[in-house]
Amino acid sequence: MDAIEGGAAELRGDDALHLTRVLRAEAGRQYEISDSRQAYLAEIEEARGDRVVFRVVAPVDSPALPVRIALCAALVKFDRFEWMVEKATELGVERILPVETAKVEKGLLEASRKRRERWERIARESSQQARRVSAPEIAEAAGFQQSLAVEADCRYFLEESVAPPLLRLLPSNRAATDRVALLTGPEGGWTAAEREAAAAAGWRPASLGPLVLRAETAAMAAVAVIANGWMG
């Protein structure tokens, strides 16, 4: 929903068509809507084809995110990356940056540019399911060196080899305004040069334990640890 003005909002395009043709939405039915700043309970006044008009009934309390997480995730096969986008959205990630690393499958960086719109749609749908006020930003894919420049109060480099447990690295004083960046690797892991570059840029290596995890599993486990760590 782009804007809510004068207690009314209008939805057009594919989302409106989904409501009218798939969900059979009609006047009088109520839904939760959002303008990316606030959630509202709204009632449909008109539903025709690709146009649905809502009347705002009341604002709805939306849970605040415990921390601002930027997930810098190495590109993996797109069905698995889509799953990562969906679950990261549900877990409250604020920004997702796809990253090309040395061991990322050839061609994924270029192909990712054509997938960005689809990932944004997945994030938007997942945010609605999770009752988030807004979807995470899906940034344009970047190279490894670019990802190291991401600014944050805490920056963690997920490491499959020997490293301190992620949970032990969380700061003792935490606030919802804190920015945390998480850099997760590809299927083949990091190269020695990438490890050295991350350390030189101030990223702290962190481990999730002794077991070997798939790239998308490791990313979501780490996001969950960080999000819950800031809730305590």
Q: Which structural traits does this protein have?
A:
five-stranded antiparallel sheet; single chain; Ribosomal Protein L25, Chain P; 2 domains; alpha/beta; 7 helices; 232 residues; elongated; Alpha/beta knot
Folded structure, characterized:
This protein folds into two domains: 4-60, Ribosomal Protein L25, Chain P; 68-229, SPOUT methyltransferase, trefoil knot domain (Alpha/beta knot), CATH 3.40.1280.10. 33% of the residues lie in helices and 27% in strands. The chain has seven helices and twelve strands. The protein has helices at residues 14-22, 78-90, 108-129, 144-147, 166-169, 192-200, 215-229; strands at residues 4-5, 8-12, 30-34, 39-48, 51-60, 68-74, 95-100, 137-138, 142-143, 154-158, 179-184, 204-206. Strands 6, 7, 8, 9, 10, 11 and 12 form a seven-stranded parallel beta sheet that branches. Strand 4 (39-48) and strand 5 form a beta hairpin. The model has no long low-confidence stretch (mean pLDDT 92).
